[in-house]
Amino acid sequence: MSYVKGLTATAALAFFGVLATPAAHAEAGAPVFAVQSIAGSHMRLGFNAYQAGDYEKAARFTTKGTVKGIKKSRRAIAYSNLCAALGQQGTLDAAREACASALEMAPANWRALNNRGVINYLAGDKVAASTDFTTAAADANASVAKANADLLAGTKMAASE
């Protein structure tokens, strides 16, 4: 694959938000967050910081994308990304609030549902996590949520045997 084609493919993946990063503090085989890149300097910088593993910086930049005056759909994405960044830092209550804000603005946002599922998983509520992953996985583009739902279903099956 040529450099240009590779760069184009990577940019397309980033644009559509299909890149996900496993939780830094989670054990192997744990559900992962889903973040989305969108236009807007602060939100793009937040996404890039998240992908680089700098979750504190990601949260700082992404917070700037949650201010009023920004289109509601973009704010919902910013809150969903903020949920992931805060979750990566282990601040689960603040992360849960960010996910709630995202879902209030965009109830069908599969990334926000997925991210709330990861927060629920990290908080030990696997039933709520499973519900969130399953709901999110209904979206045709939600491969991360589908993988998380399958992972959790396998975990629950193994735990019940």
Give the end-to-end Cα distance, rounded to a whole number of Å. 46 Å
Major beta sheet summary? none
Judged by helices, strands and strand pairing, the structural class is mainly alpha
The CATH superfamily title:
Tetratricopeptide repeat domain
Number of individual domains? 1
For the record, the CATH architecture stands as: Alpha Horseshoe
Proportion of residues in helical segments: 55-70%
CATH fold descriptor: Serine Threonine Protein Phosphatase 5, Tetratricopeptide repeat
Low-confidence runs: 1-26, 157-161
Write down the Rg.
Answer: 15 Å
Order of helices and strands: HHHHHHHH
Overall 3D shape: globular
In round numbers, the mean pLDDT is 83
Quaternary organisation of the protein chains: single chain
Q: Any idea of the CATH class?
A: Mainly Alpha
Give a concise summary.
With 161 residues, the chain is mostly helical.
How does this model look, in words?
The chain is mostly helical. The protein has a single domain, classed as Tetratricopeptide repeat domain (Serine Threonine Protein Phosphatase 5, Tetratricopeptide repeat, Alpha Horseshoe), CATH 1.25.40. It is 68% helix and 0% strand. α3 packs antiparallel against α4, α4 runs antiparallel to α5 and α6 packs antiparallel against α7.
List its traits:
161 residues, mainly alpha, Serine Threonine Protein Phosphatase 5, Tetratricopeptide repeat, 8 helices, 68% helix, globular, disordered N terminus, disordered C terminus
